[in-house]
Design brief:
The chain is of the alpha+beta class. It has two domains: 76 residues, Nucleic acid-binding proteins (OB fold (Dihydrolipoamide Acetyltransferase, E2P), Beta Barrel); 166 residues, de novo design (two linked rop proteins) (Up-down Bundle). Strands 3-2-1-4-5 form a five-stranded antiparallel beta sheet. A hairpin with a 3-residue loop joins strand 1 and strand 2. 35% of the residues are buried.
Amino acid sequence: MPARERSQRVEAVVLRHTDWGEADRLLWLYTRESGKIRAIAKGARKMRSRKAGHLEPFTRVNLLLAQGHDMPLVTQAETVDAYLSLREDLIRVAYASYVVELLDRFTYEEGDNLSLYRILIDTLARLNREAEPQLAIRYYEIRLLDLLGFRPQLFACARCSNDIQPEDQYFSAAEGGVLCPTCGQNHPAARPVSCEALRYLRHLQRSNYSEALRANIPAPINTEMERLMQYYLTYLLERGLNTPDFLRQVR
């Protein structure tokens, strides 16, 4: 928040929070106007707090932020979308936790990015309404990588640049994409990827969401894609994520 501004209205998604002081909460927010920020919600842990119910993780909210000494202070909070259907299903809660953890891990307090905010709220809305959430998650992973500048190369070998042929291939996180059989079998860290999994990943990468919905991904192929994405994301982050283990447990 610019120093000259005494208050600012923002729309945000609550990524996570932690206790702060005796009765306050420290919030990590992804806002439409300013990207990722931290803010203090004074008294949010008190029983009679009017703000507390609006500041739970993966809630979309309108906030009034006042200028604080070190961080903005939440003076007003109003829910835009609590994604109530999502919260009634533990598996969907796990997926939503994964969505916000990915964005949280990959971003810093470095200014607005409307595209990241849009893919975040769109994905939470899809998890809230759709019968099967796996496609929304796979699409989110692929689109998030695009927006962050880590778009995997899926149409040509990331090492020799030859066009990928319709056969099983390899994938290297270090090389940033798929490797042809000749390059992949000699690469110590490359992982096999089936022709079918690669076909669906390509479809998601080049499609808008309406087009992506046409895909009917078989469960074994979705599992393969999930493992491949986790391998690539873990390499990029240089550490494992917490929510995939939680998701495996609730399944």
